[in-house]
């Protein structure tokens, strides 16, 4: 598995595991299976309905085909960087600069599927030689696909069981977003487990710098 280092908005670096080419291909085939099932359903449900007017028939075919055309784009937008196939495989799209992927990022990735999928499967060969397993659409949008295979529970999130009267020691901590706190916690736990004191010192310095304590 390739390692992907992401610089967060507060310049804290954290490593993720880039989704393997095999994982991405399996996710792609799962999505293709869903699209095929949709077409089979349409054929069974509407196959008997034929229009004498070719333009009317074309309009209906185009309309019914839109869910397939926009399948990936719509799902990645509303499922936080995942399609049903990606969700099954435990992978998702992220920005490599640490920001949340935007609508325009997903549109760019989707548009470049024309190159990645329909031009001799170029994206597959690009992923094989790219150290972060990115396809052309990923490189154009500044995104990558990471693995979410690690089991997640409350101890892996920013949530902790606190007393109802708990007050933060440093009120300026509100300068950090939920995502920043999550990344700080994950980085701290990994560095502590590996006795990585250099990373712990860098993390402390960055927190002090950001929240001004």
Explain the layout of strands and helices.
Blueprint: E1 3-7, E2 13-17, H1 21-46, H2 54-69, H3 71-78, H4 84-89, E3 91-95, H5 103-111, H6 113-116, H7 122-129, H8 136-141, E4 143-147, H9 178-193, H10 197-211
Antiparallel strand pairs: 1-2, 3-4
Helix pairs in contact: 3-5, 9-10
Count of DSSP-assigned helices: 10
**Share of helix, binned:** 40-55%
Q: What share of residues are in beta strands?
A: 5-15%
The largest sheet is:
2 strands, antiparallel
A few lines on this structure:
The chain is 54% helix and 9% strand. The chain has ten helices and four strands, in the order ββααααβααααβαα.
Features:
mainly alpha; two-stranded antiparallel sheet; about 210 residues; single chain; 10 helices
Task: Note down, in words, how this protein is organized.
This protein is mostly helical and 213 residues long. The chain has 2 domains: 3-147, no CATH class; 154-211, no CATH class. Helices cover 54% and strands 9% of the residues. It is built from 10 helices and 4 strands. It has helices spanning 21-46, 54-69, 71-78, 84-89, 103-111, 113-116, 122-129, 136-141, 178-193, 197-211; strands at 3-7, 13-17, 91-95, 143-147. The chain has a two-stranded antiparallel ribbon. The chain has a two-stranded antiparallel ribbon with strand order 3-4. A hairpin with a 5-residue loop joins strand 1 and strand 2. Residues 151-157 have low confidence and may be disordered.
């Amino acid at each position: 598995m390739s390692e992907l280092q992401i610089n967060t908005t507060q310049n804290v670096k954290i490593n993720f595991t880039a989704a393997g080419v095999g994982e991405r291909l399996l996710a792609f085939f799962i999505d293709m299976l869903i699209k095929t099932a949709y077409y089979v359903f349409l054929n069974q449900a509407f196959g008997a309905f034929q229009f004498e007017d070719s333009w009317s028939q074309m309009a209906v075919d185009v309309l019914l085909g839109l869910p397939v055309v926009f399948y990936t784009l719509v799902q990645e937008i509303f499922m936080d960087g995942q399609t049903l196939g990606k969700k099954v495989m435990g992978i998702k799209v992220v920005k490599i600069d640490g920001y949340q992927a935007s609508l325009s990022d997903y549109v760019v990735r989707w548009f470049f599927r024309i190159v990645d999928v329909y031009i001799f499967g170029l994206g597959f060969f690009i992923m094989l030689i790219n150290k972060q397993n990115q396809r052309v659409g990923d490189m154009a949008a500044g995104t990558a696909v990471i693995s979410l295979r690690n089991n997640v529970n409350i101890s892996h999130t920013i949530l902790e069981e606190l007393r109802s009267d708990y007050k933060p020691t440093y009120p300026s901590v509100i300068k950090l977003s939920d995502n920043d706190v999550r990344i700080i916690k994950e980085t701290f736990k990994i560095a502590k487990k590996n006795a990585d004191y250099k990373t712990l010192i860098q993390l402390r310095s960055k927190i002090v710098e950001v929240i001004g304590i």
